Amino acid sequence: MSNAPQNTLISPFDLTDDDGYTWVKGNLHSHTTNSDGQPSPQERLDGYVEHDYDYLCLSDHYKITRIDSVDCPDNFILIQGAELHPENPFGGQTHHFVVLNIHEDMDSKNMPPQHVIDEAIKQGGSVWLAHPHWSSVNIIRDTLPLQGLAGIEVFNTTCRRMGRGEGTIHWDDWMDLTDTLLPALANDDAHAKQETKRDTYEGWTMARVRERTADAVTDALEAGASYGSTGPEIHDIQLRRVDEVSDDKHVVEATVRSSEAQSVNAVCDTFGTEHRPGNGTFDQAVFTIRPNARWARFEVMGPDGSKAWSNPFDLTRVEHE
Ligand SMILES: [Zn+2]
Ligand SMILES: [Zn+2]
What we know:
Blueprint: E1 22-27, H1 41-50, E2 55-57, E3 77-79, E4 81-84, E5 97-100, H2 113-122, E6 126-129, H3 139-143, E7 151-156, H4 157-161, H5 168-178, E8 184-187, E9 204-209, H6 214-223, E10 226-229, E11 234-241, E12 252-261, E13 263-268, E14 272-275, E15 282-288, E16 295-301, E17 307-310, E18 313-314
């Protein structure tokens, strides 16, 4: 099948232990007393270190919280960044961008959004669309005029508290409109102290890296070598083409291995498929995706309703083994 989406992502499940890859767990969106968060930068970092995270970004509003302003354990990956909010000239609400791996502050409030993205990229940074549902983002109006965004926040713990935690519809819409596969993050957007158990340690992104550095994590996230979660672990996703070669249908079989799950959905550019046996939980799902779907991303739901979101896979490039 020709007509492939415009880009490809790297599956984290194709990056092997033998080649030196490991999983790292992190949260890219958190606030401290340097903006409207309650804990100090050090308390925020210590909390994530104590909860066995591997990486964190202290993404305060407007201004970089310097990673050298806190005492960070050697093995922990602290990513320097900020949440930047240029005005929105396209009619929607002020933009919320989680910006990773930047080194110089900028006057984002007074810069057009495209200039903020360009400046961040010039610094080697990575710019992500934050909590689109909570911000009432309209992808056509507010996002399509912009170039260079790395991807989308598919889950945000703080916004879930306000009933708008998921950005899946925006994610799919953006991919459909641009015919481009986009990677996603799951984040806490933590503002409160951990004692309140309000917006900490509930949404995270697992990334597949060879080095424990901010650059390696950011590169993995941009390449799609990651998945987001509020609970389930995804252990493997493999795809193979199972239709007859002579047929004009392109049928792909998915094998999804995970922690205990009650359902797995293949969310596709067209139709979509649910695997829900209905007679208890499972840790491996093998099912065929509706014919001629061009891409699929997978949502795994745990027994408690928590979810994990894989990045999208290009099905047009899946061939017979
Ligand atoms: Zn925000
Ligand atoms: Zn925020």
